[in-house]
Amino acid sequence: MRRRGAADRRADRPRGLPERDPVEVRHQHRGVVFTVPSLALLGLLITPLGLGVAPSVVALTLYSLLPIVRNTIVGLAGVDRTLVDAARGIGMNRGRILLRVELPLAWPVILTGVRVATQLAMGIGAIAAYVSGPGLGEQIFSGLARLGGANSINMTLAGTLGIVILALIFDGCLMLIGRLTTPRGIRA
After folding, report:
1. Under a CB-based contact definition with an 8 Å cutoff, are residues 49 and 55 in contact?
2. Cβ-based neighbour number of residue 179 at 10 Å
3. Could you give the CA distance from residue 45 to residue 17 in angstroms, rounded to a whole number?
4. Mean pLDDT across the stretch 9-29?
């Protein structure tokens, strides 16, 4: 029995349907959490975890994992196979290849996922005030609840600007970490 090649698979596929990469098919379930709105997820987590910090941390963790995992997979898949073969040729084992060749080359893409996850966490952390979670979202929602009052707009702006400033500081720190830790030969 002969092995089926890419041409055979294309011939079996109905016209008009795009060819799907097997890796893409295996990893497409990871984005399921993003189909649930963050406020709805926080509401669903109230029943098992109650109000406060616990549902906020679980929601932030679930939303932050996707960009990091996806970018890690993309970064490692983007490493040139000839470099991995060369490392294997000089006697490196699988662990050393991962640590010395693949991770340093994939690091900029992985760090981009961390940056995206940090910005997501900042935005969703503000919404976590609805379930009595900690953060500057409390000031935003208190100001909105007192809309028309003397300091309602000031409270809302203080919370919003605080979140924006924190997001910019975190992004700047992660950019600096990326600049300091990315190997000189692959910097853009």
Report:
1. yes
2. 10
3. 38
4. 53
- CA 158 – CA 137 distance, rounded (Å): 10
Say how many Å lie between the first and final Cα of the chain, rounded: 48
SS3 sequence, the chain? CCCCCHHHHHHHCCCCCCCCCHHHHHHHHHHHHHHCCHHHHHHHHHHHHCCCHHHHHHHHHHHHHHHHHHHHHHHHHCCCHHHHHHHHHCCCCHHHHHHHHHHHHHHHHHHHHHHHHHHHHHHHHHHHHHHCCCCCHHHHHHHHHCCCCCCHHHHHHHHHHHHHHHHHHHHHHHHHHHHHHCCHHHCC
pLDDT confidence band for 38 (50 / 70 / 90): confident
- Measure the CA–CA gap between 171 and 165, rounded to whole angstroms: 10
How much is the average pLDDT of 43-67? 91
How would residue 162 be classed by pLDDT, with cut points 50, 70 and 90?
very high
Asked whether residue 24 carries a pLDDT value surpassing 70, the answer given is no
**CB-side exposure of 112: number of CA atoms within 13 Å?**
10
